[in-house]
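Record 1 of the preview.
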Amino acid sequence: MGALQQLHAEDTAEGQKALRDELVARATALVPQLRAGGTYSDANRRLPEESVTALHEAGLFRIRTPKRFGGLEADLRTYHDVVAEIGRGCGSAAWVAFISNATVWIACHLGEQAVEDIFSGNPDARFIGLFAPLGTATKVEGGYKVNGKWPFASGSLHADWALLSLPLPQEDGTFEQGVVVMPMNDLTVEDTWFFAGMRGTGSNTVIASDVFVPTHRTAPLSRLLASNEVGQSDKASFREAFAANAVIMLGAPVIGLARAALELTLDRVNAGNKRISYSSYADLRKSPAMQVTIAEAASMVEMASASLERWCDEISDGGRAGEPLSFMRRAQMRVDLGRATQMARQAVNKLLDVQGASAFADDNPLQRVWRDIEFATRHGLLSPEVPLEILARGLFGDFEPLSPLV
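->
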C-alpha cells in the first residue's frame, strides 16, 4: 500500500485524480475474477472468499477510511468510479463494497473515540449499515442496551462492524431516531437471504440481544444531518454534504451493472455468429433495428453514468471548497439519481431484447446482471417518485420534509 500512501498525500483535485486512476485500475484488474465468481455467488448466496480477499488486498474496502489510520480518505467521485468498476465484474461484490465504504464514511461522523474504536489497527474495517429504525434502546450507565432485528443487512457475512438505526431515549423521556455502532461479534446473523437478485450480498437479518453500546458509539440522526449542506471537518472528504453523499453512493453498483450488460452483449454480438431467429439475418450486426437498439442502450448507459459522475464531482468539489450544497440542489440530485438508475435499468432491458431468449440461459451472465439491476433499482432511495415530490415542494416554496435524507 506504499504507493497509495504517496498518491493520497495531497488533498487536492489533482491528488484525488491520481488516486482514482490507481484504484480504478486495481478494480479493473479484478473484473475477470469477480465475474467468474458470480456463478458461485448466485448458487451459494454469498461472495467467494477469494473475491473478498482480492478486494481487501487491493485496498478497496479502505476507500473512505481516514488517512491517519492507514485509509485512503478518497472523495465521493473516486468512490463512485471504483465501485462502478467493481460492479462491471459482479453486482453483489459492488453492493457489498458500496455498503461497507458508504457506512465507513457515515460512521466517521460519530466522533473521535468511536473512530478510534473502529479503525485503530484495522484500516480495512468492513461494515453493514441499516437506517430502518427497527430496534429498541434502553439507557444504562455509560450507554445503552440494544435489542432488535434488522433484515436486509447486506455484507453481513464479511463485516466487522454494524451501524444500526433505532429510537434513542432522550433525557426528557422522548425518543429521537439515532444510530449505534457495534461489533458484528455482538450480533447474531439469521440466514434469511432468499431473493432473486443480488444473491451474493448475504443480506441476512442481524439480531441484537441486550447488546451494550457505549454512548460515544451512538448519535442522534439530527446530529449527522446537521452536515447536510456542508460538513464541519477539516478533512475535505468529510465536509461533503451528508445526506447527498449517503444517498448517491447507491448509484455506483447500478452503473457498473449497466456497463457489464453492454460489454457482455457487445462481446457476444461481435463474435459474428449471433443470428436473428426466423429471419434471413445470419449476423445480427447487419440489422438496422438491432443497430439502433444497441446504440440506444449504449447512449442510455452513458447518460446515466455522466449524470451521476457530474453530481459526485459537485459534491466532492463542494467538500474541498467548503461550499454548502443547497436544499434545492440536494433535491435535484435525488431526482436525477432516480432517473439515472431507472435509465440504466431500461438500457439493460434493451440489451436483453438484443440477445433474445438465450439471454436467460443459466450459463449466460447477462441474466444475472438483469436480476441484480432489477432488484437494486427497487431500493427505496432509488425510487424517483418521492424525490419528485420533494423537488416540487421546493419549487413551490413548501419545504415540509418528506424524507430526512435530502
